[in-house]
Every structure is written in structure tokens, then in C-alpha cells.
Amino acid sequence: MDDPDDVRVLIAEIRATIALSETNPMRKLGSRLIDVVLPSCEQHPFNSDAYWECALRTWTLTLYRYSGTCKMRPWNDSTAVVDPILRVIGIKGLRVADASIIPEIPSAHLSVPTYMIAEKLADMAKQDWGYPTDPLPS
Fold first, then answer.
1. Residue 135 has what pLDDT?
2. Who contacts 52 (Cβ-Cβ below 8 Å, separation ≥6)?
3. Cβ distance 118 to 112 under 8 Å?
4. What DSSP string runs through 33-100?
5. Phi and psi (nearest 5°) for 124?
6. Domain of life here (predicted)?
7. CB 82 within 8 A of CB 70
8. What is the pLDDT of residues 95-133, one digit of tens each?
9. Of 99, 130, 126, nearest to 112 (Cα)?
10. Distances, alpha carbon 51 to alpha carbons 18, 43, 48, in Å
């Protein structure tokens, strides 16, 4: 939050959320602003812009799960780290099977896609080593 506009936008979002919580439908659900002051922000009047800036600088965090740091690519993409069969490009014998290969951050939780990626790599590794990939061989 080096740019003052970042703080300004976040405070505007807080104020919009408070306004939403004060609508009749939300009040009927029992919505209310709880004015518990953060100890590190006691020097500012509660609900002032200075208070919210202090709160933002104290408690702001991302809800995104880390992903996309080791982009998987099609064969012809030179910007990626991992090829379509999860091998790290330029390093023999190393594969990646986690959320880092997902090229864009999804809007959902990463557990299920990560399990799918790991299961796919397990099947590919079994195939490479000559093991059956069918979980219930006949």
C-alpha cells in the first residue's frame, strides 16, 4: 500500500460494506457494525479514515491461495517453467505437482485442482515406470 490511492480505494470499500450492512434487508438479518477498536489503532477515532487506514495496515492480507508461480505451458510457449507432462523445463528428473503450475489464479479453493494434478502426475509416473494406472486392475 505504498500508493495513497490503494488506501483510499480500500477505505471506500470498507465504507461501501458498512453502508450495505446498514440496509433494511441486512438489518433484518441482524447485521451491525461491531466497534471493537484494534489496540494498535486506539489513537484514531473509530470509523474515521485514519482509523481504517491504521486497521488496513495492521490486518490486511490476501485470501488468494498461492498459484501460478511455475506456469505449465503448451509445447510452444517459451514463458513457462513446466511442460504439459509436468516436467520442469531444463531439469532432468524433476516434475511439479502442485498449484504452482496453474497458469492463472482461480476464484475457487485450490485443494481439488491440486489433488487432480497430483493424481494425474501419479498416473504419468506409473506409466513411465511400467505400472498399471487402472486403480482396479482386472
1. 66
2. 10, 11, 14
3. no
4. ---PPPGGGTTS-TTSHHHHHHHHHHH----PPP--SS-B--TT-TT-SB-TTSBBTT-TT-B--SGG
5. -65, -40
6. Eukaryota
7. yes
8. 999 999 987 777 788 889 999 999 999 999 999 899 887
9. 99
10. 14, 8, 5
